[in-house]
Amino acid sequence: MRNNFVAYNATMSLRLIKYALNRNHAEPRFFNTPDALRDTYDVVIIGGGGHGLACAYHLAAEHGIRRIAVIEKGYLGGGNTGRNTTIVRSNYLTPEGVLFYQRSVELFQQLASTLDLNLFYSTRGHFTLAHSEATLRTMRWRAEVNKHYGVDSELVTAEDVKKACPQIDLSCGGNHPILGALFHAPGAIVRHDAVAWGYARRASQLGVEIFQNTEVTGIETSGGRVVAVNTTRGRIATEKVVSAVAGSTPTLLKMVGLKSPVDILPLQACVTEPMKAWLDTIIVSGTLHVYVSQTARGELVMGAAVDPAELHSTRSSLEFVTSLADQMLDLFPFLAGVKIVRQWAGMADMTPDFAPVMGITEVGGFYLDAGWGTWGFKATPVCGETMAFTVAHNTNHRLIESFGMERFHRLAMLGEKGAAAVGH
pLDDT tens across 176-199, in order? Predict the structure, then answer.
């Protein structure tokens, strides 16, 4: 952890020196916004979060498609990309989930070089705590599935958890004692805003045009295919549209006449005041509905499960923060005097089987990237790669073949809930 602080301070110092010696005190803009939309684009991507920007980058870099408009109704990364808790992992339960997220981890590990930007990617190790024999069996199951597909996960004892995190109370206040955990060594954290802006910069350098504060007001179809997108800046003729709007997915699907398979539930998080580095790993408890990691600045980033009722809102609540604090103090009683300085919420797009819905749809030229619930940020690189392939070839990438919307009609659910019972 101390190495992270040293690296952060050294980077900031070097940048300050660079500015001090630069007469103009200026660096190139991260991306350029044209004055107006073109009349037509090869692809329109709706949603300027990590997924939409990553898709734009991969389309331009790998498939040579560069007449692309990214449309964002707010600011880049202002949705769920900037509202998550930045955890990266691949210790899922289903084969489809494990393979998909393992590819994402691989891409994340080289992403700083790809984007030529320091993302503060920090491998910490990820403990998913087990508080009962039933949960312990599920952890063993997940560990075996992970190992089968080459993912570094193993079942460990409560003593192993204590050794990695001496400050933890294994008795959890006597209410839910820790019996063991699933340890996932590649578990990491990364700066979420840097990921979004890094993809935006590289996509812009390749010719992608990015428009913020631009809202989609309608999508035109003809003969079962997309033909145009209407926005507050004007109409765009296009034959391919990618929807990557998370909590706004039902609204966009209604525009093209598709029934939404997702429910929208608020997901809240918060951070504490900075403190001396002490938490070197990531701690998650599905039983307590909490997860926590510590940033390079010393803040504790904490979250819980989604709110119990559907609500299209990013409103945060006192109930969330008081409940979370109560559970956190069971794990770490010494935090009683630490102040929470900021809390927020995002809109989690939840599918019935807790797995994403991606790829081609019944409407020609309309491609969907949704259903991420509480685990969409960690899929950012692989979503960009697989959705770009799907758009370029009009056929689902092999890693997302099982994530199609038609599975709900066939009742072919994936059952990823066992690895995503708490938002993280």
Answer: 999 999 999 999 999 999 999 999
